[in-house]
Amino acid sequence: MHKKQFVAATAITAAATANIAIGVGTVAASTDNPTAGDRVTYVFISDVADNMSSNWFNADNDQSSLTTTYLPKYGKYSRSSGAKLYSGTKSFTSRSTYQLAAGAIQTGGYYAECRVLINGVQVSADSATGRYALAVC
After folding, report:
1. Bridge partners of residue 31, in order along the sequence
2. The whole model's pTM is what?
3. CB contact at 8 A, 132 and 108
């Protein structure tokens, strides 16, 4: 694992740990405490299509990652300046009783953004600017 990938993996693990510290319950269809049957969506956004690593927790609550992340959609999202952005989503129905919902993306450009939605409700978002910026949500 490269240093930048390690930093991204560490950041997502820290974000997930913070989520556990807040408290995890078993209430179905809760955006605060997602569980089995809840729909989890990660949205990754960048100023370039080809990016560095991305990380997220999958339907079985295991950490997943890509060492390179391609964002196929262009123009759905834009910055306040009007500049159009690339994006991609990862969605699944949780199979875990205690679903962690945290993600991260490191851009290959100068802008990174990520969002987490539970049952269609945005519960977390982050953006970062600068060369190889890292967004953790």
Report:
1. none
2. 0.80
3. yes
